[in-house]
Design brief:
seven-stranded parallel sheet, globular, 10 strands, 18% strand, Rossmann fold, alpha/beta, binds 2-phosphoglycolic acid
Length: 244
């Protein structure tokens, strides 16, 4: 694993944007898995700025969101589809039809099958960008998820729902959907390259367990120890538990 420790959130975002921009510039077509949440917003802002400055072309890019809440349509203000449009896709030149997200509505099994089929049709992920949950989850793969999982529907843990109720999209934990649809651990591991971002003290324990603890389904991110092209960009607070 290539672990880059930087000072703070701003620096993490800048380094992440550089990493992704460089990856995109070197390849076309290219398929990328995209996270949502608080961690990557600074990275998306910088990628949009690069594009606006005429320095980054997304015409060869295909994207797949990592996950979605079950029960939310793409235009729901709290959906991850809406997040990725507002924070990123609406501001870049990605061609129509090249951005994908798992369906939060309709038949569950069909939504999962369709997403895996779309990923396969796009030739699989060249790069997947990840955050990490305080419980070590990657995408919505909560502790205990099989390493063999592909896109599937998962009940969200009480902790994940409590953290999501931050007053921005959901006022109370009970307002947060009870389930999500997510790329599986095996789907994520099939990406050629992984970039994981972590910021803040709340992530320190999970990051240390993922990087230096046993590889176990109890800590989904620990599976990344088995991937041969992983870069982690963490700020000092998130990296505080890593062995020196
Ligand atoms: P966050 O979420 O970026 O909002 O902290 C990360 C995650 O739970 O995977």
């Amino acid at each position: 694993m290539n672990i880059v420790i930087v000072k703070d959130y701003e620096e993490m975002s800048a380094r992440a944007a550089e990493h992704v921009a460089e990856f995109i510039r070197g390849r076309s077509p290219v398929t990328i898995g995209l996270p949502t949440g608080n961690t990557p917003t600074g990275m998306y802002r910088r990628l949009v700025e690069e594009h606006r400055a005429g320095k980054l072309d997304f015409s060869g890019v295909t994207t797949f969101n990592l996950d979605e809440y079950r029960g939310l349509a793409p235009d729901h203000p709290a959906s991850f589809a809406r997040y990725i449009k507002t924070n990123f896709l609406d501001h870049i030149n990605i061609p129509p039809g090249r951005a994908h997200w798992p369906s939060g509505t309709g038949d569950e099994a069909e939504a999962c099958r369709e997403y895996e089929a779309a990923l396969a049709a796009a030739g699989g992920l060249d790069l997947v960008i990840l955050g990490i949950g305080v419980n070590g989850h990657i995408a919505f793969n909560e502790p205990g998820t099989s390493f063999a999982s592909r896109t599937h529907v998962v009940p969200l843990t009480e902790e994940t729902r409590r953290i999501a109720a931050d007053g921005k999209n959901f006022a109370r934990p009970e307002d947060v959907p009870e389930a999500g649809i997510t790329m599986g651990v095996a789907t994520i591991m099939s990406a050629k390259r992984v970039l994981l971002l972590a910021s803040g003290p709340s992530k320190a324990r999970a990051l240390a367990a993922a990087v230096a603890g046993p590889v176990t389904e109890d800590v989904p991110a620990s599976v990344l120890q088995r991937h041969d092209d992983v870069t982690i960009i963490a700020d000092e607070a998130a990296a505080a538990g890593l062995p020196a």
